Amino acid sequence: MKTVFGGLGRLYRGETTFNFIGRRVIGFAISLVIVIAGAGSLLIQGLDLGIDFRGGVAWEVPSDGPAGKLTDNDARKVLEDNNVDSASAKIQFLTGSALQIMRVQVGDQTEQVRLGVQKSFAELAKVPVEEVSVASVSSSWGRSITEKALRALLVFFVIVSLYISWRLEWKMALTAIIAMVHDVVISVGVYSLLGFEVTPATVIAFLTILGFSLYDTVVVFDRVLENAKKFSASRQSFANIANISTNEVLARSLNTTLASALPVVSLLVVGSFVLGAKSLEDFAVALLVGMIAGTYSSIFVAVPLLDVFKQGEPKYRPFKGQIAVGAAMSELMGHGDVSRLAVSKSSKSGSATTTESSMISNEELIAQAAQRATNVLTHPPRPRKKRR
Asked: Which residue intervals of 55-169 are DSSP H helices?
């Protein structure tokens, strides 16, 4: 138990020494498996597009009214009596705090058929016709929404790429775009695998996911730039800089995800199971999947992929494959030396130990640690030849 709490303390102080770059093959493999599974599902069974995208008619009927509980068979019989194909009909039961609603969705129908089915459902449920709602969406309107969503996605990618290239560098912009595409593909693949319905709320959630993924990735990249400047005087591999940066912001990334996921889980539970709001469920599920994928990609995809792009640069090429682990990484991060200096000064006997230890300021300890950090994993200068 003490080890567990000690590990959590090191995590939230940014003192962990996980070797993310050295284990990037595992992260890439997990992402590749999930992406292939999602892409395969998209090719085989596609997405369950809502009525707003494919067009059609939807009726909502109180299913626990005076006539008792309505079933799928009751709804299909009403459709067949009105010459509507019931084989492709989508029937859902939405449970709310007050009553249960049966939603029946079919393809586009004429106005006469829509009104006839509405009247038949009212007679079946023994409620006034006004209590049976009917909504109709044309397929052209659904195509228009899809095209606008794709255009918005492309514009978002272009603007983000330009901004990150200007604010950071183009390799980071390319890596961030790959990470965002990775998150969207995983989220869409999960929707296809689990058969969730894609609605306009889902599209909004996907666009929100892109912002969350980008924020988490840029936070790590910004720390990478800071550490690249910090270690510019020393000869360090980019893998070491990437590992140090990821460990330093690991707690922040996890905290951000946890703080963002809790309200989304509450929205999912309250909106879906308590209020029976289908739109809230679609929105919350997409957000939750995207947040998890975004946090994963910023740590296990974006930074390791950036190392692949950067390790071939002239200043990092001589140190390609050089990765500090464990105590060596702690040295570079400036944690190992400070603790050892403090211990060595306090290990002397008598009251003079306390006095001598207190005379050494924190600034001196940090300065000594930083000086030694620049010497870790470096090579001593070659001696000059003596002139004859």
From this structure: 72-81, 111-125, 139-167
